Amino acid sequence: MPKLIEDGRPAELSLARRRARVKTILTILAALVLAPLTAVVGMAVPGNGYYLSGTLIVLYAIVPFFVSFEGRRPTAREIAVVAVLTALAVAARAAFIWVPHFKPMAAVIMIAGLAAGPQTGFLVGSVAALASNFIFGQGPWTPWQMLAFGVAGLVAGLLADVRVFPRANLSWPRRIALATVGFVLIVGLVGPILDTSTFFYLSTAPTPELAAVVYLAGLPVNAIHGAATALTLLVVANPLLDQLARVRVKYGLLDRSRPNCP
């Protein structure tokens, strides 16, 4: 029997990875609970309270990202890849500033989640929303946008984790399915989160009637946003995922299957 099996190291590594996965799940759940609470509280802070809540949401996004490395430090190359994905997401939003509500940014964020995992997807989405608002304008809506786009990357990463979608080499049926998921995700989850910021921003005394008006008024906007996401995923997802897969294989970047460093 090989020595690695005799001394129990594979079992130890497996146990360490399970513990790391549990820690990662707990940190993600904590971020998902704390982020909306922070956004709500930030709206009640007088002045520019959204800057504080936005900063806290970025911290919530960073913690699961670093926990996911299972005891080792992320390399400069890995952080650079995350930065490039974030910049690409920001550019995707800025490039279509002249088309109302047409935002391919969510598609790039979902691709980041698919390629690098839910933690990276949440981080890219949160930071991209914050950074792009230096172009579109900061305000009380910023923390909600950070939460919404972070969730888009998180959901995409979870779908890849459970093997609903591969991390590269999407067949045409998978591309169509991913585009459909992107549309549904925007209309059914991301859009309503963004509408919630409008609801709280407009209401001094929230009522069911006002909620109905806000969410129904947001449907056409979310449909356009969803269509932009679906179209971008259909056209861009496979080439970008393949490029990221080559980088992951060549340099071993963002590969959570790598063993812990001693």
CATH structural class: Mainly Alpha
Total strand segments: 0
Radius of gyration: 19 Å
Structural class: mainly alpha
| Beta-strand fraction estimate | under 5%
Instruction: State the helical fraction.
Output: over 70%
How is the main sheet built? Answer: none
Give the helices and strands as they follow along the chain.
Answer: HHHHHHHHH
What's the CATH topology label?
Arp2/3 complex 21 kDa subunit ARPC3
Unreliable spans: 1-7, 257-262
What is the name of the CATH architecture? Orthogonal Bundle
Question: What's the tally of helices?
Answer: 9
Distance between the termini: 24 Å
Mean pLDDT: 80
Shape: globular
Number of domains: 1
Give an account of the 3D structure.
- With 262 residues, the protein is an all-alpha fold.
- It has one domain (3-251): Orthogonal Bundle (Arp2/3 complex 21 kDa subunit ARPC3), CATH 1.10.1760.
- The radius of gyration is 19 Å and the shape is globular.
- The chain is built from nine helices and no strands.
- The model is unreliable at 1-7 and 257-262 (pLDDT under 50).
